[in-house]
Amino acid sequence: MDYIAATGGFVWPDLPQQIANGILLGAIYSLIALGYTMVYGVLRLINFAHGEVFMLGAYIALFVSWAFGFSPAGLANNPDPKSSVFVLGVMLIASMVGCALIGVLIERFAYRPMRNQPRIASLITAIGISLLIQFGGTFVLPVSPQPNINETVNPFSGTQQITFKPAPAALYALEKTKTAELVQATKEFNAVFEKEKKERKIASKFQLSPEGAAIRDRQANVEKELNDARGKISQQSIGISLPNGQLIMFGTSIGLMLILRQMVMKTRTGRAMRAASHDFDSAQLMGINVNTVVTVTFVIGSALAGAGAMMNATFLSTPLTTFYGVNPGVKAFVAAVLGGIGNIPGAVLGGILMGLSEALVAWAGYGPYKDAVAFVILIVVLLFRPGGLLGSSKVEKV
Amino acid sequence: MLNKGWLSTSLASLAILTMLTGCSGGKSGGEGTTTGESSTTGTSGENKGSSDAGKRPATTADGNKIEGNEIKIGLIAAQQGDQASWGIDSVKGAQLAVDEVNAAGGVNGKKIKLIIGDSQSKPEQGKSAAEKLISDGVIGIVGEVASGTTIQIAKSAFPQGIPVVSIGSTRDDVTDVGNNVFRVCYTDSFQGPVMAKFAFEDLKLSNIAIVTDQKLPYSQGLSENFRKYLEKIGGKVVDEQFYNSGDTQFSAQITNLKSKNPDGVFLSGYYTEVGQFVKQMRDAGLKVPVFGGDGWDSSELQKYGGAAITDGNAYFCNHYNNEETRPEVQEFLKKWAAKFNNSIPATTMGALSYDATMLMIDALKRSKGDNSKALIAAIDETEGFKSVAGEITMKGHGGNPPKRALVVSVTATGQAFAKAYDYFAQ
Fold this sequence. Notes:
Radius of gyration of chain A: 26 Å
Strand content of chain A: under 5%
Shape of chain A: elongated
Distance between the termini of chain B: 61 Å
Strand content of chain B: 15-25%
Largest sheet of chain A: 2 strands, antiparallel
Oligomer: heterodimer
Number of strands of chain B: 12
Number of helices of chain B: 13
Distance between the termini of chain A: 48 Å
Helix content of chain B: 40-55%
Number of helices of chain A: 15
Order of helices and strands of chain A: HHHHHHEHHEHHHHHHH
Number of strands of chain A: 2
Mean pLDDT of chain B: 85
Mean pLDDT of chain A: 87
Helix content of chain A: over 70%
């Protein structure tokens, strides 16, 4: 791979776009990382099944969309059902509630019986639950089911374009002329293709007669010039384009994180959670019902994963498999550790840093090493601050 | 210090967890004709098929003998697991061939009996299926699709002297196992150059960017073969971007691609990531033509890519296409429809399996003895055998017949024929 550096980047006009890419990506990691960090904060348990809760959340969102006419049968009847903010809202709430329920069930039946056992026991239980859901799920859940909710249910396609410095006006004029030329050239090409399809029984546009091929090549050439003009515009202008879906995702994530912060800092339950996180046993002695606290922690953490999953499936990537949560789960876990596991602002910071490092490493031209760099950052941070960036590094007495 | 120790335990378990799930996770349906840990060794860009003919180790065993009134042929295909869609088509194709020959009187008056072994989409299961078939007395084995599985089958058949005709394994080193191994498909060192030629000569694109899945040796080898040939015929690679199987967000790579202003993009990975990559590319305003290898061949591609990949600007390399007017294809489809309820094969493996089985039966007719050794010699002598996916000549090519390849374009319902390429030297 000696040519990697040669394809390297540091294309400065791309920097704002790459920073935006990183932050948008990081917000999702943050949202999932919150679940890991909260459970760890209260129980000192790494809930490896969190990624699977995320996966199930995406499936719940899908099944809810079926109820709105997006099911395979529904799509056969009406191929273009209408999606709306209401549909998305119901999917979001259902996914959050469903995930909260699943999280509580996992805690009640898998982790609670292990709570007084050595920690390694609950850790192994967590891994077991994770694998059970991943592989057991393949027997129950449809693999890459219809519809592609990313494609059909998302009503917010398109992007927001923010231009800091436009390209020379001549290029925009060129793009316009070429667009018009392409319409004309495509019309001519279609006419000759249809004609030869009938007369010469050809199946492909690469079998056209020499005259037809000339028209085909002219059309291809205009298209190439149009793409080139577009490319030059994006090369010579400085700006960022933000996909609408990801903006909504970012806004919702930030909103949910603010609500969480208010809850933890301002409410009675939040205070109980902080107390349990500080010292589980003392909190119990002070009359705090720690079982309730643990349940609430799992409810909140899993609901956040559900929200992340619903938005991820709707605005970013489908189709779904039972391994949908593995990758985001791993990244978010690293983000939580990086920010300081057990620390809520740390999870948000860690997530954003992970997203940024991925985007910036790719920008610098070292794309193949983007995951490696994220882990190097993690190792360096843990060397100097063993508790993570914002975590307490106090040594626990055994 | 409990805190720290705890954390490192967790990280270690995380690593184990990732390993456990990493090998089986991610891929859901069938994937390209090379699977799993497949690696393309033929990155030199030379055609190993014609140059390696004499280098393969030769088996010395006589193999099994034809006994009684029937000739036993083994077929190994995945009936379960993520490659089952190929395996099911493989069985149908082979059964179609055997029934056709038996209806016409069999071979030298003897009926053919097809014995099916299940590889369960796993190389080690393929190996035990092969051992079982050999002890059952099969004269030869047809299969498998996945290269990793075929290599295991070939290794257990080699010391026994049993011929193996692979259905769809494109990995270059499959036939290096021994002189008992053959295939009826093209190799990875051919499809890269085919796509380079198509992009440069037919789409008239000269500044091309490559996108490689750095976790897949298949993808790395294909990118390299593509790059070598493109540069040889005068094209230019303006950028190469990388991702990992399982990634879902490609905004960073796409931003980089856009700043290099390519005329076209070659994506050598599997449909799982390619579909999403193209979708995000189109969303970001990069509308240039995209193309790739047979790792795109799945109806799942359209699910991942949506409308972005069916815009008529996406092409990939495949073995044959149902829309071809060649009589071999149309006759095959007629027979298939008559036998299987008016359906068409769901994957290209139906036709390739039919080809592989027919090739073995054709060799049986020409065989100068009644054991596997004579059959190996007969298969190796094959010249100008007319198959559904193009003519096959084994003689002098070390098990890798120089085959034609097709370029198809992605449509909403499947794939449309674009152009056929006869074998050319790279």
